[in-house]
Specification:
Shape: globular
Structural class: alpha/beta
Number of helices: 15
Order of helices and strands: HEHEHEHEHEHEHEHEHHEHEHEHEHH
Helix content: 40-55%
Bound molecules: 1,3-dihydroxyacetonephosphate, iron/sulfur cluster
Largest sheet: 4 strands, parallel
């Protein structure tokens, strides 16, 4: 089958199964091209919670498909490659989280959506990189536990007037970016606006112009009158950046900014997934009910 035939078959099957195809901004270009909705974690969670389609095909990583299953319990949720995970989400265990709760009994747990449904179920509220400061400020408490990303945690801590207890997790893709690499890129393109994801290390975030989620970066560039941008996040974002802004230029630091898990889903897999209606992602009811409470508390906060 040619790529064109595969795409046609995917669209035909999606229609037959009444399926909505969601793709994260880091997915392969051809997957983003064929999706009904592309976006950051927050936008995709909202799309999953609002759709009236029967099936959600989530082109992203496991925690994202789990969130869709939690928010839309009456839908069939498919993740074309079940092996697409997020190493950072795996850095929290229920036992260690319980121990941290006992250490700080007055601090509610704010879970970045890059966590398993089980972890969300043990947390008080979720956040994404697009709304983290708003979520933490919405809480009346003077102290909070922020899991699992220490870099996002540090960023939040510097923007809120609360004591923040940080979990020592990190994203292996963003955390390895060196200050030297971003500085070299800035020296090479001194007239470019520099945007970074909050999962980058604090010393990198200190020298950039704006710290944004992937959806926030896309919005910023669309609305900006500037023509050149340095982008410090996974390279998949280039697909939407180029589509939205054919007249603008994008530069990346000299760094392998690729999340292998985000690249696992191929067009062939997406087709097989729609042919077999597998692999389905389900979350046990007890976990789902508690995780939904944390996600819905987050979604209730005005954007
Ligand atoms: P966004 O919510 O900003 O898209 O980020 C998700 C993610 O996995 C970043 O590594
Ligand atoms: Fe997880 Fe990092 Fe990949 Fe995002 S980029 S899915 S945080 S490993």
């Amino acid at each position: 089958m040619t790529e064109q035939q595969i795409k046609q078959e995917i669209l035909k099957l999606a229609k037959e199964h009444d399926a909505l195809i969601l793709a994260h901004n880091y997915q392969r270009d051809e997957i983003q091209d064929i999706a009904d909705v592309t976006g950051d974690s927050l936008a995709l969670s909202i799309a999953a919670s609002k759709t009236d389609k029967k099936v959600i095909v989530f082109c992203g990583v496991h925690f994202m498909a789990e969130s869709a299953a939690v928010l839309a319990p009456d839908k069939i949720v498919l993740l074309p490659d079940q092996g697409a995970g997020c190493p950072m989400a795996d850095m929290v265990t229920p036992e260690a989280l319980q121990a941290m709760r006992e250490e700080y009994p007055d601090a509610p747990v704010v879970a970045y959506v890059n966590t398993s449904a089980e972890t969300k179920a043990l947390s008080d509220i979720c956040c994404t990189s697009a709304n983290a400061v708003k979520v933490v400020n919405s809480l009346p408490d003077k102290e909070v536990i922020l899991i699992p990303d220490r870099n996002l945690g540090n960023y939040i801590a510097s923007h809120v007037d609360k004591t923040c207890h940080l979990w020592p997790g990190f994203c292996p893709v963003h955390d390895q970016l060196h200050l030297k690499q971003i500085q070299a890129c800035r020296e090479e393109h001194p007239d470019a606006v520099c945007l970074a994801h909050p999962e980058c290390p604090p010393e990198v975030l200190e020298v950039v112009d704006h710290i944004l989620s992937t959806g926030g970066m896309l919005e910023y560039v669309r609305n900006s009158s500037e023509k050149k941008f340095i982008i410090a996040t996974e390279r998949g974002i280039l697909c939407q950046l180029r589509k939205d802004n054919p007249d603008k230029e994008f530069f990346f630091p000299e760094y392998e900014f690729i999340c292998e898990d985000m690249k696992k889903i191929t067009l062939e897999q997406l087709l097989t997934c729609l042919q077999t209606m597998q692999p389905q992602i389900t979350v046990p009811e007890e976990i789902s009910t508690a995780a939904r409470r944390s996600l819905e508390r987050m979604l209730a906060i005005p954007r």
